[in-house]
Amino acid sequence: MLNVGNRENEEQLDYYNFWEDISDEGGQVITETSTGISERSVKGCFRVSLVHSFFMVDVRSPVYNSLSFNHTLFKRQEVNKNFNLVGFSKSALSNGANIKVCNNKKYGEIYPPADWFENGDEERKPYLQYKLRKSIWSSATILPSEHVTRKPSQISKDFDMVYIINLKKRAQRRVFMEHIVYELGLQNYQFFDAVDGKQLNDSYLAHLQVSTLPGYKEPYDDRTYLTRGEIGCFLSHYFIWEEAREKGYKSILILEDDAEPVPDMLSQYKLVSAEMKSLNGNWDLLYLGRSPVDETVLKTSDIEGLEHLVSPGYSYWTVAYALSDRGINKVLSHKPLSKMLPSDIYLNILYDMHAK
Prior knowledge:
The protein is α/β, with parallel strands linked by helices. The protein contains 10 helices and 13 strands.
């Protein structure tokens, strides 16, 4: 038996990959036994009337050669959305098939279908999100087949390198990001070992000549110092900026390992990419993910002739952003290690935005 995944923000659905029985109208019959099997409060192998999605057939059984879809077993009023499933199962049962579901082991995960989606692309959006979430929150990761390759996406074409910042101790996050790499069609990417702030010591920071910007106050609690975590985060980004400049990259994309793409990111990005190209290189920083302080500001573009790009305003996070070569030079030109700030606040100040 397969586990059924919940839709986000919805209660568990009465959806299993087996039917205990079939009603006279061709529908699913759910009893306490069905629930017990699904929840594994009882375990074993149970005779049922229908299985779907994934199942095994014993080709050595005499019944195997009799398996077929027999529509004559159906009454006219029974023809509904489950016609193919129920028709095949009734044919199998009428020929003596022994249909069982076993729940002693967990065989995988299935995603409940959604009848209301208009097309395959629409259905793929929540399914992609489900796959990505399962890859990080569950040990049952959904791996791509080695026989299936993805064409490079527009993101891969637009950036010389995609950097993915990941702490070595966050191994499951790396697995999660490897799934994102596949789903987003990234080919030119590298995992970049994050600086673990907990491992920093005063002598190393003195060697780098790290010091906080004089007069710094955290915008909302007036803290005047940076935590070791904030310092480690800034250094992770800083070392990427340095490497990108040394390698002469024209543009880079930086993702932190807690980045979660929206399901239609690739289609959205194509629109953004076209507008970026219309700027003819006249850009420094592009947020692909951020937390705007005032979400009511700039819902529509304030840039003449553009529809999908906006001036960002004051924003938290450095979870996903791009830099042009001009932008890389600008973030490094101010010698930021000697005037260190949290990385998101530093970027805000460079485009003349601050909370206070």
